[in-house]
């Protein structure tokens, strides 16, 4: 490609992500002169898909240090998924506060589900209950997820 703009770079990045080639994707990402929200979203989602949750959180930290890119719903879903799998309740709570108070992200069904899942996997069912109560709509699958998390939390604590 004689001239690469951000869209071209992101297309290449997406190609590597689709094939699961995280090494090539990260190398390309590092070569980019400018990374937009699509660039960051693509790479964080790839880390989560490959179960490299620490890599996702590390990349998120780098993005937030730059302050020129604000996380969107997709980035926050990836980060919440990483927090859930790593048991990083502290980071998950920070994301929840960011969603509530930044005014930049409106929690939709998917983002709310990621929050609920993170709290449930971290054993914080009271906080999961708050998220569940605030959700504008609830699917049957979501109710099952909440009930399953509640049951697991009680079983883990030794009470049923």
From TrEMBL:
It holds the Pfam family PPR. GO terms for molecular function: RNA binding. InterPro entries: PPR_At4g14850-like_plant, PPR_rpt, TPR-like_helical_dom_sf. Keywords: Repeat. One of its GO terms (biological process) is RNA modification. The keyword Repeat applies. It comes from the Eukaryota. PPR repeats lie at residues 5-39, 108-142. Gene3D superfamilies: Tetratricopeptide repeat domain. The keyword DNA damage does not apply. PANTHER family: PENTATRICOPEPTIDE REPEAT-CONTAINING PROTEIN (PTHR47926), REPEAT-LIKE SUPERFAMILY PROTEIN, PUTATIVE-RELATED (PTHR47926:SF485). This is Putative pentatricopeptide repeat-containing protein-like. It comes from Solanum chacoense (Chaco potato). The lineage of its organism: Eukaryota, Viridiplantae, Streptophyta, Embryophyta, Tracheophyta.
């Amino acid at each position: 490609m004689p001239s690469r703009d951000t869209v071209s770079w992101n297309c290449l990045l997406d190609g590597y992500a689709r094939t699961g080639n995280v090494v090539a994707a990260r190398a390309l990402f590092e070569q980019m002169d400018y990374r937009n929200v699509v660039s960051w979203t693509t790479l964080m989602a790839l880390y989560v898909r490959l179960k490299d949750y620490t890599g996702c959180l590390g990349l998120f930290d780098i993005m937030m240090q730059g302050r020129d890119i604000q996380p969107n719903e997709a980035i926050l879903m990836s980060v919440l998924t990483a927090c859930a799998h790593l048991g990083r309740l502290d980071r998950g709570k920070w994301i929840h506060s960011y969603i509530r108070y930044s005014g930049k992200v409106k929690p939709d069904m998917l983002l709310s589900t990621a929050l609920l899942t993170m709290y449930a996997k971290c054993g914080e069912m009271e906080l999961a209950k708050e998220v569940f109560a605030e959700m504008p709509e609830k699917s049957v699958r979501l109710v099952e997820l909440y009930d399953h998390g509640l049951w697991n939390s009680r079983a883990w604590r030794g009470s049923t």
